[in-house]
Design a protein that fits this description.
Blueprint (H helix, E strand, L loop, with lengths): L1 H28 L4 E3 L2 E6 L3 H10 L5 E9 L2 E4 L4 E6 L3 E7 L4 E5 L3 E9 L2 E9 L5 E8 L6
Parallel strand pairs: 3-10
Antiparallel strand pairs: 1-2, 2-7, 3-4, 3-7, 5-6, 5-8, 8-9
Length: about 150
């Protein structure tokens, strides 16, 4: 009986140790939080580990953006996308360029217009953010060699 109890304690301790280490691993691969005015944001997602960390973090942000290039029948992630967000009658709220295919943005509740520019081609979408909720938006462009 004592042996089973010891094994259980060792197993639980090992599992807790791995569980406690998991967030540290995610934090190491997560890009740094940046700030522009009152808006905090993360941009990145280059490489499998960083992409996984950003996706896991996305639920903590009211708005997540994903940037894709359509190459034939498949989508490829893209970066260096210029993002501008306005509120209401066009008052600028946020402007930055993505360092990877993902951008997580901490905006207060409200209605916003999100404009993303990739290789000189502009796409605009509208979103309404609600307290405690997450909204995800995907911007997709045809590859450079395709029309559009």
């Amino acid at each position: 009986m004592k042996q089973i109890g010891t094994r259980l304690i060792i197993s639980v301790s090992a599992a807790l140790g791995l569980w406690a280490a998991a967030p540290a691993f995610a934090d190491e691969t997560l890009p740094a939080v940046q700030q522009q005015g009152y808006v905090h944001y993360i941009t990145g997602g280059v490489g499998a580990d960083e992409a996984k960390a950003v996706r896991a973090e996305s639920v903590k942000y009211p708005l997540s953006l994903t940037f894709l290039l359509r190459n034939g029948t498949k989508d490829e992630f893209t970066s260096q996308v210029k993002v501008e967000i306005t509120k209401g009658a066009g008052a600028p709220v946020f402007s930055a360029t993505s360092d990877g295919p993902f951008m997580l943005i901490d905006l207060p509740p409200g209605k916003y217009r999100v404009t993303a520019v990739c290789n000189g081609r502009k796409k605009t979408q509208e979103v309404e953010l609600h307290k405690g909720h997450h909204a995800g938006m995907t911007f997709e462009w045809p590859a450079q060699n395709e029309a559009g």
